[in-house]
Amino acid sequence: MLEHAFRMRSTIRRKPQRGSYDRAVIHRVLDEGLVAHVGFAVDGMPFVIPMVYARLGDELILHGAVASRMLKEGSTGVDMCATVTIIDGLVLARSWMHHSMNYRSVVVFGRSREITDREEKLAALTAVIDHATPGRSRESRWPDDKELAATRVISLSIDEASAKQRKGGPLPDEGEDAALPHWAGELPLAIRPGAPIADPTCDGVQLPASLTRDRW
Amino acid sequence: MLEHAFRMRSTIRRKPQRGSYDRAVIHRVLDEGLVAHVGFAVDGMPFVIPMVYARLGDELILHGAVASRMLKEGSTGVDMCATVTIIDGLVLARSWMHHSMNYRSVVVFGRSREITDREEKLAALTAVIDHATPGRSRESRWPDDKELAATRVISLSIDEASAKQRKGGPLPDEGEDAALPHWAGELPLAIRPGAPIADPTCDGVQLPASLTRDRW
Question: For labeling, which of A2, A78, B94, B99 is most exposed (least CB within 10 Å)?
């Protein structure tokens, strides 16, 4: 299941009816997701690393410590594949074969580019801070020069990307399966927030707006 | 953030204090996760595909249609990297630099092996069906020979794997940061189920035990 591009990269081969190259659909999934699984190959060996990310226009922004080998590699311009998946539910059917998962996912292929220009770097990091908590960049202290220098930022263009999704209940059971006594249907799933836990040093500090918007 | 093995593959280089090679820790994360992001390289080009999976003993089980190019590739024994990430929360700090995410993740490196023996294949598919919904394999119809033949199952050994996690609130703010008026703390996040949606054909069929166990 859940197969995206292969060989032709962003051409969806398996279950193409579930696929889309619509930029708005791709942006929506990227804006809602929280973690990108970033793949790259070293001597033909694949690595997949979970990373915080942000979308800024048509770019996917990744960041980390300058010492990170993965980002060091990325800074030289290498082929990467970043995949974001949102799980929407489990699909239970009368037969094993029709069990499935509801999801939305985006696969981005691109050559990494390091962002070194100070203004562009700050804009990229602003997008990262605001991605999961909109407006948080204005509720906390910006990086100073030393912190900026210790942070590497790379981007992937979203030019070559595809979205894929499945939604709804199980495929209709056919023939004898339809008469089986088993329950079939869907269990919706979603990431939900618990109650915020304030740092012990935050006595009397009001909960920030970034945690009280529609996002959470 | 969230960096796993690199160069030495399962040797954790960045923030090694967050890492673990403990088999029980690795199993717990794999058993709780729902989707694996599976990476492989074709002519040096990385691909990362979200897939349903299961752990069976010390093996990670993947499956899909025989027509899937990715699984066809996998059936020939190729290097793969499968990463499972569970998001536990957002970490907000007074400075951008100390923002983070709480998570648990496992990276498995391995050479894929196709499972063709009928009994072994059925056991692997049982694990897949029961992974997200324990006991579901006994609440639904097993695959017949035709369905089995249309399904390819591959496994990766969990021999070379590492777990990584971050938990708790933000790092303590130092110096002038400690006096900043911003809120700092943690927003716990977890995947939660909504109300099950029965298929229209399931009038009067009782909700299955697999949806009423501790898992959901």
Answer: A78
